[in-house]
Amino acid sequence: MVKHRIKDENTVVFFDTTLRDGEQSPGATLSSAEKLEIARQLSRLGVDIIEAGFPAASPDDLAAVQRIAKEIGKEGGPVICGLARAVESDILTCWEGIKDAAHPRIHTFLGTSDIHLQYQTGLTREQAVARVREAVTLARSLCDDVEFSPMDAGRTETAFLIEVCAAAVECGATTLNIPDTVGYVTPDEWHETISSLIAETPGAGPGSGVIWSIHCHNDLGLATANTLAGVRAGARQVEVTINGIGERAGNTSLEEVAMAIHTRPQYYQLNTNINTREIMKSSRMVSNYTGMRVQPNKAVVGDNAFAHEAGIHQDGVLKHHSTYEIMTPESVGLQKSRLVLGKHSGRHALKVRLGELGYQVEGDALNQVFKRFKNLADAKKNVTDADLEALIADEFHKPEEFYSLTDIQVMCGTMGMPTATVKLSKASGENYVNAAVGTGPVDACYKAVDGVVKAETVLMEYSVHSVTEGIDALGEVTVRIEAQGKTFGGYGADSDVVVASVKAYLAALNRMLAVTGHGDTQPEGQAATINFTSS
Fold it and tell me: How far is CA 72 from CA 35, 100, 345, in A?
């Protein structure tokens, strides 16, 4: 029974239905192997009960539940639960799925609202109570741990809920789960409903050994608030999913309830068995396996949950995390907060981040970098570490420029030969223009540069990649050339990858010229003339 996971009356146990209700999210179907991996992670997370699936739904679901029961539901591990309608065949199949677990549970349910009775089951209230008695009696004959849920309890008359729950307890139910199936209720009325049920249901009051549970959906965005209201009313089991996935707008998020109790101990005065440091790992696994992306501003596990861009916030967090964070990133399994550098960021955040990257920039140099940083931030939403590396390299690590790029024009495509025209400037003030045809735009550019510099080199390596995400990504290019038995590297970054390629090539050539002493060699031809070469 679930009692083996309850330390005292102040412990809230977590019933995770990611593998059942969560998997019912459109497009979130999981394979048996994926379910097993998630179940392993849920066990590491400290989940008390894993609802492994709906065994009667399909042979594959039955097989997945059986595998989880055998491999995860060992002694000392979580309760392994299966869902079953209040139908004999469902309950028998459910038992086949979970019977090998050390702590198995059958969870059976029946709709009790007038809407469900009239339009879904066609039962009268009297027939519904009789069906509940039959289902719970059968389940209890197979398993010592039986949970019953009056589906759509949020829209069921409280007096009838009391009657149904009393019948379930009388027939052997050990957990009474009260679901707000359609996300209809509000926290105040839910608190009142749960309080009334606990106080007035015969055989299920305090000291009876019956566990009261809540299962809330998020159709009005109130799932977590309603769940916590139920806990305040005396419920000691919460039914949740990782990332809040589930039918329609989803279920109550495990991470939100766990961290609310963890972060506000003086208010709730409750404990859990959840290892909060496993939260982020669990969130990412479920997101990856289901293909359901976590929204950036999602509480606790969203990308922005511990991210700061505003300069005031960044300055405060850098001085002490508690200024703008009510929980530490380490408490949910992250290494640290993330300072998002963008147009709202200040000098302090930029300086600190540069320092973390190994660049100690002060005074006028910092002002210079900050100005360029702001220009870059205006052009793209977020400035990444790679952007900063590129900016620093371009600002402070430039080789001596014998030649610099002034202008470039490229024509390419399927209609003609790739052609590039480059205009280079020497430190002494001369300008040189050259054009060339190549096998592609970068090759044409390099041939045009070679026509000006007239250096005998071999291109040993050319590497290009996007160092940031999105269509406005900054392109980074590195090249390696060989001349006179020596190797020289060059680096360039620009939102235009062809321009970045030429910058990188010129950087390598300038380093080569500085070493070989050919920086003053006059190129053939006159300044500002166009020489055409071809491949």
Answer: 11, 10, 47
**Backbone dihedral region of 310: left (phi > 0), alpha (psi from -120 to 50 degrees) or beta?**
beta
User: How many angstroms separate the CA atoms of 523 and 147, rounded?
Assistant: 87
Alpha-helix runs per DSSP H in 357-402: 363-379, 385-396
| Amino acid, single-letter form, for residue 42 | L
Residue 468 has pLDDT above 70, yes or no: no
Name the CA dihedral angle for 250, 125, 87, 169, rounded to a multiple of 10 degrees.
Answer: 80
Same domain, yes or no: 316 and 190: no
Higher per-residue confidence, 505 vs 511: 505
Range of the domain at 19: 10-290
Overall number of domains in the chain: 3
pLDDT grade, residue 502 (50/70/90)? very high
Cβ atoms of 528 and 407 closer than 8 Å: no
- 196 contacts 176 by C-beta, under 8 angstroms: no
Distance (Å, whole) CA 513 – CA 486: 11
Distance (Å) of CA 19 to CA 29, 64, 65, 358, 441: 9, 10, 9, 44, 52
More confident residue, 315 or 374: 374
The pLDDT assigned to 4 comes to 54
Question: Region 296-318: what's the mean pLDDT?
Answer: 78
Residue 296 in any domain: the answer is no
Residue found by looking up tokens 């869902």 in the block = 83
Share of the chain above pLDDT 90, in %: 58
pTM summary value: 0.70
Cα angle 92-98-100, degrees, rounded to a multiple of 5: 120
Lowest-pLDDT range of 43-52, 158-167, 356-365, 441-450: 356-365
- 359 has pLDDT over 50: yes
Q: Which two tokens stand for residue 360?
A: 């100690």
Burial category of 475 from C-beta neighbours within 10 Å (exposed 0-12, middle 13-18, buried 19 and up)? buried
* Residues 441 and 525 grouped into a single domain: yes
- Predicted confidence (pLDDT) per residue in 24-82, tens digit: 887 787 888 899 999 999 999 999 999 999 999 999 999 999 999 999 999 989 999 99
Sign of the Cα pseudo-torsion (288, 294, 296, 297, in order): negative
Q: State yes or no: pLDDT of 418 exceeds 80.
A: yes
The encoded tokens of residue 487 equal: 């190797």
Q: Are 165 and 200 in contact (CB under 8 A)?
A: no
Q: Judge whether 198 and 205 are in contact, CB under 8 Å.
A: yes
Q: Is 301 within the bounds of a domain?
A: no
Rounded to whole angstroms, the Cα distance separating 151 from 160 reads 12
What is the per-residue pLDDT for 523?
44
Q: Which residue has the tokens 């961290």?
A: 259
Q: Which two tokens stand for residue 298?
A: 């999602």
Q: Is 5 among the domain residues?
A: no
In a domain, 1, yes or no: no
61: its two tokens: 């679901």
Distance set, CA 306 to CA 45, 259, 332, 381, 410 (Å): 20, 14, 10, 18, 44
Is 170 in the same domain as 36? yes
Residues 111 and 255 in one domain: yes
